[in-house]
Design goal:
The chain is about 40% helix and about 20% strand. By secondary structure, the protein is α+β, with helices and mostly antiparallel strands. The protein has one domain: FAS1 domain. Strands 2-1-7-6-5-4-3 form a seven-stranded mixed sheet. It is globular and about 60 Å long.
């Protein structure tokens, strides 16, 4: 009887559990969701190039603030390294869920939302937070914490997997001097010098 029970578990129950685990682990794919929106293709491309898409796909309850190809052209034409681009785009991934139907709870008309950049620990103080403000007439604005009046407007909801991932479009790139500063490149190793130093040791 015990042997038969083990066979049932191995043959039927275990594969079902593994399938459920796979579905839970891969609840969304941000690049596939964005693929249906040609005007956001450059944003989608750089999410993949910077490997930020992989980090997004591993998280739940997030909002991706996408920008159109014109805004991305303005950004990429500045000559930033891929590491700096990743930092900038990390500011466009909020660690909270927001869409047109779920307006954020905004005490005093505004709230701060942490971003993936803030979660990396690389953000000085609170520079990795985005301030969401509900202006008069229902105009929702997104701006970097401490960046003054520089902000982008909510345009529309793009895609949603309710309370898991929301993709919205905003009017422009969220950028600050802190995040756009060049990311240090690791020093190159000179193999000949290393071997020579070892030989002298």
């Amino acid at each position: 009887m015990a042997k038969e029970m083990r066979q049932v578990i191995t043959s039927y129950i275990l594969p079902i559990l593994l399938l459920l685990l796979a579905v839970e682990t891969h609840a969304h794919n941000v690049t596939l969701l964005l693929a249906n929106h040609p005007s956001l293709s450059s944003f989608n491309h750089y999410l993949a190039q910077t490997h930020l898409a992989d980090e997004i796909n591993q998280r739940n309850t997030i909002t991706v603030c996408a920008v159109d190809d014109g805004a991305m052209y303005d950004l990429t034409s500045k000559g930033y390294t891929i590491s700096t681009l990743k930092n900038i785009l990390s500011l466009h991934v909020l660690l909270d869920y927001f869409d047109a139907r779920k307006r954020p709870q905004l005490p005093d008309g505004s709230a701060l939302a942490a971003t993936i950049f803030q979660a990396t620990g690389a953000a000085p103080e609170n520079t990795g937070f985005v301030k969401i403000t509900n202006k008069r007439g229902g105009n929702i604005r997104f701006g970097l914490n401490g960046a003054g009046d520089v902000s982008s407007s909510f345009i529309k909801s793009i895609e949603q997997v309710p309370y898991d991932i929301s993709i919205i479009q905003i009017s422009g790139i969220l950028l600050s001097d802190t995040v756009s500063a060049p990311t240090p490149v690791p020093a190159e190793m000179n193999l000949a010098e290393i071997m020579s130093a070892r030989g002298r040791g």
